[in-house]
Every structure is written in structure tokens, then in C-alpha cells.
């Protein structure tokens, strides 16, 4: 008989924060590309950082608030058929 330990809410929250941080780092790779391709110009660096951070923030917000995903409907417990 295998018994699985339930996952605590702190672990779930930690995993979500880890995913958000990793997503921010991955999406900020555009900064490195901007530095390589546009050496002396600052606007591409600022633009790519803003786009990457904004996309990562939106993904993280959807991770913590799934009700904000378009087309998602929250069904009250009283309406759920058992």
C-alpha cells in the first residue's frame, strides 16, 4: 500500500514563485540579445526588458489567479453535480 503525503500549500506557492522567477529570467534573454546586436543604444535594452517583464508578469498573474484567464468560468460548489 503506497501512501502519498499531501502537498502543502506553502510548497505549491513556492513552486509557483519559482516558475514565475524562471519565466522572468527566460523572457529577459532579449536584454542579452539587445546588448549584442545594438551595442551603444539603450532603447532596445529598455524595450526588451519591458516586454519580457510584462509577459512574465502576465503569465505569473494567470498562475496565481486562474479566474482571470479569458473563457474560464468559476462554478459555485452548490451547482456542482455529485
UniProtKB/TrEMBL annotation:
GO CC, alphabetical: MICOS complex
Subcellular location: Mitochondrion inner membrane
Keyword vocabulary terms for this entry: Membrane, Mitochondrion, Mitochondrion inner membrane, Transmembrane, Transmembrane helix
Membrane topology (UniProt): Single-pass membrane protein
Organism domain of life: Eukaryota
Keyword Transmembrane helix: yes
The protein's assembly and partners: Component of the mitochondrial contact site and cristae organizing system (MICOS) complex.
Family of this protein: Belongs to the MICOS complex subunit Mic10 family.
PANTHER family referenced in this protein's UniProt entry, alphabetically: MICOS COMPLEX SUBUNIT MIC10
Known function: Component of the MICOS complex, a large protein complex of the mitochondrial inner membrane that plays crucial roles in the maintenance of crista junctions, inner membrane architecture, and formation of contact sites to the outer membrane.
Protein name: MICOS complex subunit MIC10
Organism this protein belongs to: Crucibulum laeve
